[in-house]
Amino acid sequence: MIPDWAKEMNCAVTVCDKDGIILYMNDKAKETFAKHGDLIGKSLIPCHNDRSRAIIADLLATGGSNAYTIQKNGQKKMIYQSAWRENGEVAGLVEISMVIPEEMPHYVR
What pTM, to 2 d.p., does this model score? Predict the structure, then answer.
């Protein structure tokens, strides 16, 4: 059995299927969206604006990834979204959201 390695991570992890139905949220994701109740089994599409919906549709169609930073509730966050696959076919998306410092070192290696 594979452990739920993401359960107690210090970043929010949300997984949806190819129809945008939320399959998994780790503890941090559940905490982040607690005011919306239990979202597992619900569509994430209504929670997004038209621009975001278009990005989600593109990621699901192309199997791509998307990364950006936001400022929310006084915290800077990095959002990384990527398709996940099953037997080579896009099966949904994973989003990882993590708080990052205002100034972050960048290294060229």
Answer: 0.92
